[in-house]
Amino acid sequence: MSEKKTLQYRTDGPQDAPALVLGPALGTTWHMWDRQIPELTRHWRVIRFDLPGHGGAPAHPATSVPELTDRLLATLDVLGVGRFGYAGCSAGGAIGAELALRHPERVASLALVSASARFGTADEYRQRGVIVRTNGLDPIARSAPEHWFTAGFAAAQPAIVEWSVQMVRTTDPGCYIAACEALAAFDARGELGSIGVPTLVLAGSEDRVTSPADARMLVAGIPDARLALVPGTSHLAPVEQPAAVTDLLVRHMSTSWQNDGAQTGGFSITSLGARKSAAHPAPDASPDPAPRPGPAGEIAPPEVSAEAPGARPDPYEPGMKVRREVLGDAHVDRAVEKTDDFTEDFQEFITRYAWGEVWTRPGIDRRTRSVVTLTALVAGGHLDELAFHTRAALRNGLTPAEIREVLLQTAIYCGVPAANSAFKVAGEVIRQETTPPE
């Protein structure tokens, strides 16, 4: 099988033992789970994997969580693994949620570590991609310890801090940007109730990346879920509190088919299985075997039936999706908030036809569309639109150097005064968007 369709992996433990798969966080490698391995391999065949371009893995970018999930399943198929337990940290947790939602027959038990149903905002992750594309990974690497560890741990463990920095620095930038795109598009908030796998949600009490509130949202939404909060711990809980995390994983994976809980001195587990099962019966325990209709099963009104001859799908929703991806949620939200009776039809016109009919066409990619758009805006002297489309061009993959070349070209064909004004506007946007956070 092509290496583009699989992931770099490592196996430890008895080959005939049940399989436990461990998924990494963005910017890390499978080594983030090193301190769990001695205990976990007493019970399971442990399979760890790297995200594309991480840890020396082949640099074949994947821009969506479903694509990463498909590559993981292809890897497990190569290994002959059918059903398995899964524990994923952060981005690895997103893959775990996708597995439980789309391939529940493969997942026997699930642990979501430092995870969320929605990682920040799409704008935040696309902005991170712009910074990496412009400055490389060094700014992200230097700031990683403060996001991953508590200050006390970082001060006491300088060798681990340096290891974490080097882990990010050795990641392929293109694959890191693609993973940011995957997290920007990931949103499982509306589907948590469909996860039927026994789930442990584990969070550090001091995590500022995926907060305890994010963990509680997961537990509230997943029918058979338990919450474990590890005090004094930040985002990379398996590294900062290896013993606590290991104990929690062993207990959950060993007893995940039972609705019981426990209390220990160093951390707490709250079992919600019995209480929540009454309100949300597990699929195999439901007295009503009839499937519940989901979005794919909704019946369209007769006048807009997709089966009617000559019917065309309304481009509004696809247009809004692309509009948000290109311009950013914050920009679109501001435009929507300002909409009134006078401008409502115009906003719908933009979304439905500019974004839903043209920007969604497959003939050219978004980078090329940004080049065309920048040129047209310079030619027309539309400087306000040039500002937010410069920001969009960065998110669509153009570098500042490429934008500079576009504007130089416009000086020849659109006029020097027009290009001069464009350079001022675009330069300020580029400075704002590509300056790494302090």
Structure description:
- The protein is α/β, with parallel strands linked by helices.
- The protein has helices at residues 37-40, 65-78, 91-102, 122-135, 138-148, 151-156, 158-169, 173-185, 212-221, 237-240, 242-255, 273-279, 316-327, 329-337, 344-358, 366-380, 383-395, 400-413, 416-434; strands spanning 9-12, 19-23, 45-49, 84-89, 107-113, 199-204, 225-230, 268-271.
- It has an 8-stranded mixed sheet with strand order 1-3-2-4-5-6-7-8, sandwiched between helices.
- α5 (138-148) crosses α7 (158-169).
Beta-strand segment tally: 8
Global geometry: globular
The SSE order reads EEHEHEHEHHHHHEHEHHEHHHHHHHH
Structural class of the helices, strands and pairings? alpha/beta
Helical residue percent band: 40-55%
What spatial order of strands do you see in the largest sheet? 1-3-2-4-5-6-7-8
Distance between the termini: 44 Å
Total number of helices: 19
| Sheet having the most strands | 8 strands, mixed
Task: Identify low-pLDDT runs.
Answer: 257-308
Strand content: 5-15%
| Average pLDDT taken over every residue | 88
Radius of gyration: 24 Å
